Amino acid sequence: MTNRYLVSRSRFIAAAPEAIFDVLATPALHSVIDGSDTVKGAQPRGPERLSLGAKFGMEMNILLDYKILNTVCEFEEGRRIAWRHFGGHIWRYVLEPAADAAGRPGTTVTEQWDARHVPARILLRLLGYVRRHPANIEQTLAKLDAYMSSEAASGTGSAPDQLR
């Protein structure tokens, strides 16, 4: 059964789940991997690394600059992380150890936008979010893959903003 208010995409990334999780749990890196180009940066007073119940703010732009406060609502170290803001929808990442067709170890990363329990979810559809999110999620997963294979992720030097 499909539900238009649960958008989910997966991608194999040739990196360990723990390494990918470290990127997802670091708000300062969210703008680097954001496929929608709406996340502009983390607000300075938030945590450097996320944990269950952590609150973190992001600088955003959809036609106008604004700030959004998120709360981590799901957290399983190295496997699952999700957050929501006042609108109620959830951004979730699920990481599963996997191997590609050549047997190369890595992780299947599933990103989800979950608005199934948002009372005013019809507004999200009318505003076009349901239509735009599949492509945005695919682009986020592609950017995450590129980041994980970059020198920045391996710790050998390149700055994260070189991926933009």
Short description:
By secondary structure, the chain is α+β, with helices and mostly antiparallel strands.
**Which structural class best describes the helix and strand composition?**
alpha+beta
Low-confidence runs: 156-164
What general outline do the C-alpha atoms trace? globular
Helical stretch count? 5
Strand order of the largest sheet: 1-7-6-5-4-3-2
Mean pLDDT: 88
Describe the protein in words.
The chain is of the alpha+beta class. Helix content is 26%, strand content 35%. The chain is built from five helices and seven strands; from the N terminus they run βααββββββααα. The protein has a seven-stranded antiparallel sheet with strand order 1-7-6-5-4-3-2. A hairpin with a 5-residue loop joins β6 and β7 (105-114). The longest helix is centred in the C-terminal third of the chain and has 21 residues, at 129-149.
Looking at this protein, list some descriptive labels.
single chain, 164 residues, alpha+beta, seven-stranded antiparallel sheet, 7 strands, 35% strand, globular, disordered C terminus
